[in-house]
Every structure is written in structure tokens, then in C-alpha cells.
Amino acid sequence: MNNCKATQQHTMDALTFTAETIKALAWPTAVVLVASMVRKPVIELLPFLRRLKYKEIELEFSKELAQLKSEFATNESTISQKSQPPALSASNNRLLNIASISTSAAILEAWSELESVSIAVASSFWNQPPSDAFKNYPRLGDYLLQCKVIDAKQLAVFNKLRELRNKAAHAINLNLSEKEARTYIELASSLIAHIRAT
Question: Which of 43, 77, 108, 122 has its CA 20 to 30 A from that of 198?
Fold first, then answer.
């Protein structure tokens, strides 16, 4: 009788062990099964999600650029397109030609020109040729403001152009219109003309 009871106890322990093992493995197994079932649809969604992200950046870029243009147009202290020197229009034509091929490249090039002119002017206050020290200087616009090359509103335009340039540089599949690139080029060119005139 005791022997039978011991066997029954041993059987119960084996069943309890098996039940506990199944309970312990149920969740990880379920997770692996669900993950393997939804893996393919999720992978197929990734390009769509990536495109959605770029679309959001494009819309944000367009909105910020339109706002910047309207602020810039109402700022009386900025240089208008009419007062730009003739040499600048050749640069504009080159940038607009680039924009017809790649809007992002045109934006990067327009910023590069604005940055180069800013560096040249900033370096001139130190009686030095343009220096790389200013190229990596995050407060280049603030320095130009301090030296009275630009005013506070122009500084806001300068900083926003830099921010938009960074968005264009880091979003690889950004699809901007030529009109947006043209607006960016016009804003950068107006600021370049003003900085050169000082």
C-alpha cells in the first residue's frame, strides 16, 4: 500500500513537473510563433513606414520654408532680390540648374555658399584669410550679429536655413520640389548679398 502510494506520489510529481514546464514554455513559444507569423508583413511595411517618415519631413520642411519666406519678406532690413549684385545672379543660375537635377544638392550648395561668405566676413574681423575654425563654429550667425553684420531677424533666417540644410542633408530620400529649392536659394542668396555688402 505504501509502495503504491509512493508510486502515485512520484507520478503526480512527474505530472506536476510536466505541467509547470509547459506553463513556463507557453509564453516564449507563443511569442516566437506570433513573431514568425507577422515578420513578413512587418518587413513589407518597413519601406512604407520609411516613406511616411520622409513625407512627414518633407511637409515639415515645406511649412518651415514657407513661414521663413513670409517672415523674410516682411522684414524691411533684409536685402530684396532687386538689389542683388549681378555676380550673384550667375551663382543663382548655377544653383537653379543644380535644383533641376537634385533639389537636396542645390540646398546643400546654397548653404555652402552662405557659410563660405559668412566665414570670409567673420575671418576679416581678425585680419585673417577664411579659416576652418569658423566653419565648425556653431554660433557663426551669433558672431555675425555681434559684429553688426546681420540683425536679429536675419540671424533667425540664418539659423533656420542651417536647420533646413541639416534636414536636407540627413534625410536621404527627401523629395523636395524645385519650387522649394528655389525658395531656399533665394533666401540664402539675399542673405549672401547682405553679408557681402557689409
Answer: 108
